[in-house]
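Lecture notes, unit on protein representations.

Consider one protein chain, 431 amino acids long.
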Amino acid sequence: MGYIVQMSGLAVQNFLSAAVGIVVAIALVRGFIRSRTDKLGNFWVDVTRITLRYLIPLSVVGGLILVASGVIDNFHANQVVTTVVHGHQTITGGPIASQEVIKDAGNNGGGFYNANSAHPFESSNPFTNWFEIFLLLLTAFALPRTFGKMVKDNRQGYALLAVMAIIWLAAVGGISFFEAQGAGVAPQLAHGAMESKNVIYGTPGSSLFAASTTVTSTGSVNSFHDSFTPFGGGIAVFDIALGEIAPGGVGAGLYGILVLAMVTVFVAGLMVGRTPEYIGKKIRPVEMKYAALYFLTLPVVILTATGLSIAMKTPQASILNPGPHGLTEILYAFTSMANNNGSAFAGLTTNTDWYNTVGGIVMLLGRFAPEIFALGLAGSLARQQPVPASTGTLETHKPLFVGMLVGVILILVGLTYFPALALGPFAEGLH
């Protein structure tokens, strides 16, 4: 695409997609703090405020930091240069730094170059690598504090933040461990599985980026996940399958974990035999129906599309790596599409009628249906009258609730995706 199209077309969507996610999250929070009303705010007012007061200033400051750190930002045409071995290479300039911040901070992930953030023009040194990881996580990790402020109990926000941090740290640790312990002569000589990784970041910087981009909905990469060790790549798939709630996408992470928090409160209520409550609102059958629809949409869409792609003859021709790794590539592709991640395992020919059509349907259902159910849940909560806390109310700001919420998340996702993961990355890793 031309530079003007990049800056005027794609950039608009980059900002709006991030703003819409935050708007939906704020609408759900308003469902908790408002009562006996069907008013959740004005969509256009919220989008305008978020874009002008937060996303644009962040992008301007972040862009200046990247330019000062060596990321290019220009309108240069293609330059043909002579390499050190006397070959010729065409190098493209472009408005990289100004687009890079909203690409990462807005959880969009589409890189200017095919190599994405592994390209030195997009991330030129270890500092820019760390800064871009910071941008990936910044907004999603900040929104729980916004939640705490809005419900006038910061402890509620910190509890959700703790859950997000625990799962993120587990993902970082798991991928880092398996990439550093890569089996085989070559990984051991390289002190890690270095295939398809930028040498200036090594396995630590690549593992941190991979975990951060898959637990969020960014899809930006600085290494190629298809070349990760089986268990390292399996954790990346699992991260996305979580529904990206740790910390998740911009806005999507907050409303996703709030839905799962209500499921946890409901489970706890069943254990003690009383009507569950969360932030002063009763979690009734109607709220649980919305929560169930929210949670079940993604697994149904992802696993159905994956199963059809394996079972039908035409899509099988796209599999370049038969066996467990091929299954992992298909599972990763649809998991990424449905969860708005955008990264890919590669090694799979997806530019076919089947994957373009089914992939488009998966994207639409996976991205819009959960938002609709989250807004329906918000409206149901807003119409309720608040109930005062009593001695039987579960304290949702304590470590006990944090542990329960982590357990519910892992059990729900683990039981749902375990068969597919067992046949894909687990089978490959144990082979």
